[in-house]
Amino acid sequence: MKKSDKSEYPVILAIESSCDDTSAAVISNGKVQSNIISSQLIHSQYGGVIPELASRAHLQAVGTTVRAALERAKINIQDIDAVAVTTSPGLAGSLIVGSHFAKGLAIRYGLPIIPINHIEGHLYSGCLEDDSLEFPFIALVASGGHTALFYTESYEKYTLLGSTIDDAAGEAFDKTAKLLGLGYPGGPEIDRLAKQGNPAKFIFPRSMMHDGTYNFSFSGFKTSIRYFIEREFPNGVPQEILPDICASAQEAVAEVLVAKTMRATKEKNADAIVVSGGVSANSRLREIFAEKASKTGTKLVIPRMSYCVDNAAMIGFAAARKLIEYGTEAFRDYTFCVSSSALRAERKH
User: What's the pTM value of the predicted model, to 2 decimals?
Assistant: First the structure.
């Protein structure tokens, strides 16, 4: 890449550490040159993420992960134009590790640093996956900590239509898996077993599916699963029943997510849907979305698995757009802080 092209096509080193995955990526010319993800397996024995253990693991992994990303991209740190890092929302200790490491690199090499909201990264991961995607589109971001619908009009203008009022979809899967005695994270386990089960065997609540809003609620679903197990299988769920419960539970969550998203697409007159976040890896959710989108002639973009999970590629992509829009001098402030807060209802520039 020519030196004169750098302002238009920045080379960005991105770092993501919002929860229990340490990730680093290099974005060059708008393309992903590397996307390294180091997952923390230690949390599986506890049935959930332990914040202190997560931050310690990030400390051990961040340097190695960044070096691996640079090596995979076949680039030196001196060739980087800017550093990007996730600053919210997430676990405070985890965010601090990534943020401080990124600040250290930026100060050492005199680079601009671009703070990025994790949800914003997911929001635009569809654009990273498919560069033919056009605005406006409806974006569903569904993960272990977040479930939200956005009306996205440009890279700098989006509106939060609705979000969960209690549990997120991914959390509902994790808690269901725990009640069934399955491993953590629960989403992949439920997906795996559901493939062998009957989704119509049991009926679980589709909370708020027809309430007229774009909000979600999964706490009642989770409680329903617990009462069902206590009532029907007080001595433990037989192994042969697990697939049917998983399939039925998965169907309930998926139907709510799809119904709300499809209604938003129709009411906002959008031509495309983006489904992102860890829950978008669920195979049944992808199937239902594909069926509904095909019937309505709606473009559907669901990123590849490596862009669904927490990853630095989406952080770098979002940062590249901001750097092109505002220039390097807009990102010389190294004093920003991390935050656990999610996106506000509307963002416009």
Answer: 0.92
